[in-house]
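Q: What residues go here?
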């Protein structure tokens, strides 16, 4: 895993920095684990744009990822480490003892030929999945369940991991990648390790064209628009419309509290800020 830079033979290459893909061991994905991905262009079922600045992009296929890791007490061998265009992390192709194949999020130091297992009493080894109650505090974990049987929801993107701070009865105090400390039932499952491809944060897109390949359309700044197009538009010189930052529809943004799920406040021991 590393970052590849280029000689600045063009303006865009001067700033481009991409992954060298050295850890990838297989070019073609497993056909039985693919689904077609339909593009929405940011439009809802009525054809109205509800998410702006989306459209185009390279054709992709969805890789079916096993976030549940619910095939218990059966070892699986890592067949390959592959690229997934739909996420920042790499994925590992597993083949179980009964011949079934599944994808999982690939952690750092997981290699082809390694064996992983999901079990109540699994060994504390990278790639193994077991309940929080059986994982010692201080060990990096990822793909953490919020509720038992719901599948991994937390720490799934490149370089992310959580840590168990303490255990108290049926609860585990888990520190999330954001710094938030949260109560999670100790019966919930998590996978040992840290998500791979940690150099992802050093990638530089380098040019507008690469954004278009990713399906990201151009976005103009609000203060550069006219007052008819945005509340922050217009004014003489560089002006921000004489008001606090807002969305195009006048809703406050940047620092404005948007949290609605107050019912989970009781599970949060320490906020991320």
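A:
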């Amino acid at each position: 895993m590393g970052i590849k830079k280029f000689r600045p033979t063009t303006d865009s290459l001067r700033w481009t920095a991409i992954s060298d893909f050295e850890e990838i061991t297989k070019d073609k994905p497993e056909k039985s684990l693919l689904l077609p991905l339909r593009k929405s262009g940011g439009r809802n079922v009525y054809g109205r744009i509800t998410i702006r600045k989306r459209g185009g992009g390279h054709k992709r296929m969805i890789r079916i990822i096993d976030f549940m890791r619910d095939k218990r007490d059966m070892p699986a061998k890592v067949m390959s480490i592959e690229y997934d265009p739909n996420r920042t992390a790499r994925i590992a192709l597993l083949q179980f003892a009964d011949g079934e194949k599944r994808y999982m999020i690939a952690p750092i130091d997981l290699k082809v030929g390694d064996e992983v297992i999901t079990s109540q009493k699994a060994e504390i080894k990278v790639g193994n999945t077991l309940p929080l109650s059986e994982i010692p505090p201080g060990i990096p974990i990822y793909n953490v369940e919020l509720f038992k049987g719901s599948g991994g929801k937390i720490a799934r993107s490149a370089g992310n991991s959580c840590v168990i701070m303490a255990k108290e009865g049926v609860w585990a105090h888990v520190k999330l990648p954001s710094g938030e400390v949260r109560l999670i039932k100790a019966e919930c499952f998590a996978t040992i390790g840290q998500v791979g491809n940690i150099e992802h944060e050093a990638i530089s897109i380098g040019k507008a064209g690469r954004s278009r390949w990713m399906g990201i359309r151009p976005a103009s700044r609000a203060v550069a628009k006219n007052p008819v197009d945005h509340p922050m538009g217009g004014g003489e010189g560089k002006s921000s419309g004489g008001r606090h930052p807002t969305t195009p529809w006048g809703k406050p943004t940047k620092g404005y509290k948007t949290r609605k799920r107050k019912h989970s406040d009781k599970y949060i021991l320490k906020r991320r800020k």
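A: Context that may help when evaluating the design: Residues 2 and 224 are 38 Å apart (CA to CA). The longest helix spans residues 208-213.
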